[in-house]
Amino acid sequence: MGSIRVLAPDVVNKIAAGEVIERPASVVKELVENALDAGATRVRIEVEEGGRKRVRVSDDGHGLAPEDLPLAFAPHATSKLAAADDLLRISTFGFRGEALASIGAVARVTILSRRRGAVEGTELTIEAGDLGETRPAAAPEGTSVEVRNLFHAMPGRRKFLRSPDVEMGHIEESVTRFGIAHPRVRFEFVADGIPRITLPPADALRERIGAFFERELVDALVEAESEDAAASFRILAAPPKFARLSLRGQFVYLNGRFIRDRVLTRAINEGFREMVPHGRYPVVFLFLGMAPGEVDVNVHPTKIEVRFRNVWRLHDRIVAALRGKLLESDLAPHLMPGAFAAAAVGGAPSPQAIVDYFARDAAPGLPGLGGAPIPLVTSGRRCFQLHDRYIVEEAEDGIRIIDQHALHERVLLEEVRRQYASADVPRQLLLLPAVVEVSSAERTRLEEHAAVLESMGLLVDDFGAGSIVVRSVPALLKDADPTLLLRDVLDRLGEHGETEKAEGHPIPMIDLLLEFIACRAAVKFGDRLSPEELARLLTDAEGMDYSATCAHGRPTAIKMTLDDLEKYFKRRGS
Ligand code: ADP
Ligand code: MG
Predict the structure, then answer these.
(1) Which of 12, 71, 100 for mutating ligand 1's site (highest number of atoms within 8 Å of CB)?
(2) Closest Cα to atom 23, ligand 1: which residue?
(3) Is 561 in the pocket of ligand 1 (CB under 6 A)?
């Protein structure tokens, strides 16, 4: 350790870059925010090799004066904030003056800009912190910023970048977030020369949402608004049946900025409580407007997290707005049809019936659930099902309690893996092929993965007019609703890349899909098994390693040996 010294500016910038610029998608985010701050109505995003090689964002905004170009790269240089007081009134995305300086410290950046009405443009390049000459250059009105060789001089950082596919996925996510918040702005996203998302300016939010979600969902969105002195919000929520397998269908914006907030996420899920099954997340678009002083956006370098003055009040208002709307609108008949067939005979169940149904489910042992256990003998051992959830089995030297879903999933996973390895995953052709509406982004996703989908038995074709047709499904899932199946597969494809194994290697897509099939085809936690089904499951599982985990890494069974039991009941000293 030496004496205390002020860090050189290039070191400061590199440190700031570490916080602001995590991956190519962060570059895209910062550049698009600058374009929107400049009043752009058209934003074009071009990316090569997942952004590792090149990211370019061009806009038709107000541009920069030639003398401002070098300033734009200077740390803490911003045109958006003059005094600390202004922090309370910020209406732009940027104000820290950090982004361009940070990116310029870790990449080669060229900015080309022409102010509205100016006769020519100006160009300036900065490479790993070294500022070049400002030069006149031909340019359309507006600004384009090109970023090459991100983290080139920082092998440590570069190493953390994922495959181009994964990085591209993050960028697509970022473009989606902007697209939904700014319907009037035209966005184009071009990846490796191929247009991936094109969003013509839309008059209405719903129209823009329709670029990313199926028409049926958009038409079914229910809307609620709320306003008081501290905060106003508009919320669009898809009915429970559209719930997704991940949080990727939830968009929360604060004054136009995409944010993540645990309490608000909780409010959304709470608003849907008892209406969507466990493990699914409703599709919701929440647009918050807060008065200055009610929220601090300057707590996180990328501003994705903010601090509310009274987040729980907001929570309660959101829950109330959602529940009011969801229960009043005609949602009940669409609610989890299978689950309710048994609960309500004839007619749509009332909200109370829904609540009761789940309350009952959550309290095992109540009449109507348990019934007498069915003893059964497999391979000379006794077993039965309890609470429609667990199988208790007599083992040679003790007893085993099995999670029926986890075990079945494990068995099926091994089966589909075997089938896949021998290139023979049985498929079921659909007598009535299902036509499913998809967005252009979803279509691209399907096209990209067509080969792998086909190898697992899911055959889809273009149907034109924003639709695709499902021709076959994996035989194991022949009873599933093909439309829902496809939607879930699309979710999985979208998530791919975010899911990574502990060692940091992305899980191959096919593994994810095989796990998906196994999970989907397995008996559910809560399904009553017939004696035959029970016998079959245990026979299939025979020889399998019970210590093996299910596809999601949860254990499939626990075992207590007779020894353990005897110790427990103090029949024997330990
Ligand atoms: P911030 O956005 O926080 O002000 P940045 O480093 O992102 O900081 O940008 C610095 C400055 O460069 C901005 O304040 C703005 O004046 C200018 N600038 C950056 N991008 C653009 C753009 N696309 N159009 C016009 N001006 C821009
Ligand atoms: Mg900025």
Answers:
(1) 100
(2) 35
(3) no
Q: What is the mean pLDDT of residues 80-99?
A: 67
What does the pLDDT read at residue 17?
65
Please, which residues have CB within 8 angstroms of residue 310's CB and are 6 or more apart in sequence?
230, 294
User: CA-based Rg of the chain, rounded to a whole angstrom?
Assistant: 28
Nearby residues for ligand 2 (ion, Cβ within 5 Å): 34, 94, 99
SS3 label, residue 248 = helix
Q: Is the CB of 523 under 6 A from ligand 1?
A: no
Q: Whose CA is nearest to atom 13 of ligand 1?
A: 78
Would you call 545 exposed, middle or buried from its count of C-beta atoms within 10 A (0-12, 13-18, 19+)? exposed
Closest CA to ligand 1's atom 7: 99
d(CA 548, CA 393): 17
Cα 463 to Cα 212, 292, 406, 468, distances in angstroms: 18, 49, 37, 4
Structure tokens at 325: 């709307």
- Host H or E run for residue 568: helix 562-568
Helices (H), 210-288: 215-220, 262-271
Q: Positive or negative CA dihedral for 227, 231, 234, 235?
A: negative
The Å distance, Cα 325 to ligand 2 centre, comes to 38
Is residue 284 classed exposed, middle or buried when 0-12, 13-18 and 19+ CB atoms within 10 A define those classes? buried
The secondary element (H helix, E strand) that includes residue 453 is helix 450-455
Helix, strand, coil % (nearest 5) of the chain? 40, 25, 35
Dump pLDDT digits (tens) for 189-241. Answer: 999 999 999 999 999 999 999 999 999 999 999 999 999 888 999 999 999 98
Give the position, in ligand 1's atom list, of the atom nearest the Cα of 143.
Answer: 23
Tell me the C-alpha distance between 148 and 349, whole Å: 58
Distances (CA, A) of 451 to 338, 469, 470: 32, 16, 14
Q: Please tell me if the CB atom of residue 490 comes closer than 6 angstroms to any atom of ligand 1.
A: no
Q: What's the pTM value of the predicted model, to 2 decimals?
A: 0.66
Residues 189, 35: Cα–Cα separation, whole Å: 14
